[in-house]
């Protein structure tokens, strides 16, 4: 089993098997996958990736 790391640039969380996949990238949670709209927090409360406001996924 390979562990994937979330593709949210500031997130280091491991991506679970059931994680949402967007444009071929894997994210640990819906919040990361949708680029933290309204600073929606990561599924991991220890993770502060949503504070960085990286501007979202450009499609
Ligand atoms: Zn995170
Ligand atoms: Zn993440
Ligand atoms: Zn994130």
From TrEMBL:
**One Pfam family this sequence matches:** Metallothio_Pro
Keyword Glycoprotein set for record: no
Metal-binding keyword on record: yes
What GO annotations for molecular function exist for this entry? Answer: metal ion binding
Q: Which SUPFAM superfamilies match?
A: Metallothionein (SSF57868)
Q: Which domain of life is it from?
A: Bacteria
**Which controlled-vocabulary keywords does the entry list?**
Metal-binding, Metal-thiolate cluster
Gene3D superfamilies (UniProt xref): 2.30.170.10
Q: What is this protein called?
A: Metallothionein
Q: Which organism is it from?
A: Kushneria avicenniae
């Amino acid at each position: 089993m390979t562990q994937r790391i979330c593709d949210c640039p500031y997130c280091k969380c491991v991506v679970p098997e059931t994680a949402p996949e967007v444009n071929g990238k894997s994210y640990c949670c819906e919040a990361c996958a949708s680029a933290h709209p309204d600073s929606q927090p990561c599924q991991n409360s220890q993770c502060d990736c949503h504070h960085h406001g990286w501007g979202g996924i450009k499609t």
